[in-house]
């Protein structure tokens, strides 16, 4: 039997999009997965929508107190039993071959971490608004300091080789901190040069408001990596420049 994949999903007020996300998982050609969804005290009918699906692989936990996306991901990770950890936010989508392609690459090449191309789409139409983000470089701790090439929707790692990695709940850049901590322990993450996921670019997404999170990014280096002030400012400047380039080439 193929190894179990644990899919980690936090959700909060996701009723508008969650059914599309659920369908993208149900359509996977790789069928040995468990889906650990943690609802972060949604105020809409997200929980009711998820409960309509009777698939025993979908395992919902509804929190009684809102704790943020990092905390919700950690709650899912605590319940995960799979060899492979995959992340899917409650408004993003995978192509049907996502899990199969990613796990096959890791098994065939005996690597700990992989990431793939993903489409960057309008939140309502799901049509591309930017060029696909390309998985075109081997990722290391060093180059991940300057720009976060790893997105939850397009990245998977092998717990059998590296164990579980949790998110810091006191950072608004929790995914970047987690990837950096992981890449302290392994030499490289490898690109799968195929577009296998769709990222929904939300107007109210924290990750889109670059000017508002410069301080949070600085704290990634200063507080979590424990760099000096000068070194932290250097990497923050690099991150800001790369972030501008990442989102500036609109072609619609």
TrEMBL record:
InterPro entries: Glyco_trans_2-like, Nucleotide-diphossugar_trans. The keyword Transferase applies. One of its GO terms (molecular function) is hexosyltransferase activity. Residues 6-127 form the Glycosyltransferase 2-like domain. Keywords: Transferase. Pfam families: Glycos_transf_2. The keyword Transferase applies. PANTHER family: GLYCOSYLTRANSFERASE, UDP-GLCNAC:BETAGAL BETA-1,3-N-ACETYLGLUCOSAMINYLTRANSFERASE-LIKE PROTEIN 1. This is Glycosyltransferase involved in cell wall bisynthesis. It comes from Chryseobacterium polytrichastri. The lineage of its organism: Bacteria, Pseudomonadati, Bacteroidota, Flavobacteriia, Flavobacteriales.
